[in-house]
Amino acid sequence: EAQVTQNPRYLITVTGKKLTVTCSQNMNHEYMSWYRQDPGLGLRQIYYSMNVEVTDKGDVPEGYKVSRKEKRNFPLILESPSPNQTSLYFCASRYGQGNTEAFFGQGTRLTVV
Amino acid sequence: GENVEQHPSTLSVQEGDSAVIKCTYSDSASNYFPWYKQELGKGPQLIIDIRSNVGEKKDQRIAVTLNKTAKHFSLHITETQPEDSAVYFCAASRAAGNKLTFGGGTRVLVKP
What we know:
The structure holds two protein chains of two kinds. Chain A is built from no helices and eleven strands. By secondary structure, chain A is mainly beta. Chain A starts with a strand and ends with a strand. Classes of the chains: A mainly beta, B mainly beta.
């Protein structure tokens, strides 16, 4: 089954404690992105990757890091989480550029206290 | 950069009635406009999309219209059913771009 898998689904952590949210897709897609969803603000892109070892900033990259060492995986790293990073996070993958369907993971609800 | 505005933020309709969600965009170079539906506890899923060379597209009970001159596009759901209750997002993108810019979302509630 074609899917994007994120882990964990829920995470509560404390300020400053490094964490990683994993994302994996089995569709051999080149493009992968991370979004955060906040009420009234829709989905805002954090980082994206066009292929292995190629990543770039989205609209809200501050406080986040990503890596793309393999085509299927695109982890999101918060080196020192802060309460304003409490949000619902989604990983997405696409086959090609802007006019192709994005497939989203189930989401990760992160709370930073 | 692109800016997409979506209205209304919430929409309550009676089962069987129609629902309309409207979006405006700012980048005249955008030429791909998808709509995503997000059910509770799930990630968004594409339900319909339209490209700039088409003014209207229909798929069963849902339709999307695009007015490139005015830079706005709309989602129409006819004969609404309880399973249409969800959050809907519009988005805009350039065909050769790397970014999909989303609107703020519309929470639709269909009352039986």
